[in-house]
Amino acid sequence: MMYTENPVAEASTMLAVVVTGPGEHSLERVPRPSPEPDEALVAVSHVALCGTDLRLLRGTLHDAEYPVIPGHEWAGVVLAAPSRPDLVGQAVVGHNFKSCGACGWCERGAANLCPTLDEVGFTLPGAFAEAFCLPVQNLRPLPAGLSGAEGCLLEPLCVAIHAAERAGEVTGRTVGVIGAGTVGLLVAQLAVAGGATSVTVADPAAQRRGIAAELGLGAVADLTVWHDDPREVVVDATGVAGVFPAGLVATAQGGRYVLVGYSGEDSTPFEPSLVMLRELTVVGSLSGVGRLDRALEVVADGSVRLGPLLSDALPLADYRAVLDIPADSAPLRNIFSVNQEPSQ
Ligand SMILES: [Zn+2]
Ligand SMILES: [Zn+2]
């Protein structure tokens, strides 16, 4: 596939969303980055805005560093790659992370916990821009048959894959996923593929339960229906602190509770003795470092479908319009088109 006549390829400046402080951001013209010898300059075709990005824009994200160009869920096309000119024109997705590779966490395969981990869109310039740079070794071809918008969902799929790993064995077990957002619906599909006896999502938004049904998943509006019939594995993908107490009650004796949603600095009272009396295992799951190749596999083998999770793409210039949409009427992912889509 070829990608030609992109004005960004020759330009010295580009459009980008720049966050300069909590709640302070604008679409502005900034210098276009130049790739280092081992990097590629990627023209962004699509970028998605997730809950973490909303927190970054609103100023409610832990340890945010400013100024920053957000955007870590993206697909694009290689515009330049000094060490790999053969890649120019290739549609790509990529690993967003740079870990040190030498600390104890990196050595034990948990680079997501590396203390000096850098991530595109947080500590490195992200994809809410016409272009950004990434090491060539981080790139993977966008699979044929996947649109740029679908490519954006590979990043939350990495997050879901790690959460499914943290959930452990699900074969022959009942699984409840709280929150039918993008990550929740991806985790639920992975649980089905993993051999769970039943997989049900809980979400008050009828539109989201409809998407769950389209994916062949069971869906309930209120997780408290599980209080009388607890699930053996519960994954909390809501990012709402107040869900935790009811989620624990919904978890069966000997069961496992996985927290993958990020709830900022909110807190909630809960009953610790439930964890003790039921011998629950409560685990956290942070990001999806190193899971991109697995994500490409589960899409290719049909275990996970991305299409039903998509909504129409908006132009990048409209990014502010989505900031005030209430969560229960927002699409699963707000997707923006940046440069034209490559022809396949
Ligand atoms: Zn995200
Ligand atoms: Zn490290």
Automatic annotation (TrEMBL):
Domain (Alcohol dehydrogenase-like C-terminal): give its ranges. Answer: 183-298
Q: Which domain of life is it from?
A: Bacteria
Q: Which InterPro entries match?
A: ADH-like_C (IPR013149), ADH-like_N (IPR013154), GroES-like_sf (IPR011032), NAD(P)-bd_dom_sf (IPR036291), Zn_alcohol_dh (IPR050129)
Q: Which UniProt keywords apply?
A: Oxidoreductase
Required cofactor names? Zn(2+)
Looking up Gene3D superfamilies in the UniProt record yields:
Medium-chain alcohol dehydrogenases, catalytic domain, NAD(P)-binding Rossmann-like Domain
Q: Listed GO molecular functions?
A: oxidoreductase activity
Domain annotation Alcohol dehydrogenase-like N-terminal: ranges: 37-143
Q: What is this protein called?
A: 2-desacetyl-2-hydroxyethyl bacteriochlorophyllide A dehydrogenase
- Could you tell me which species this protein originates from? Actinokineospora iranica
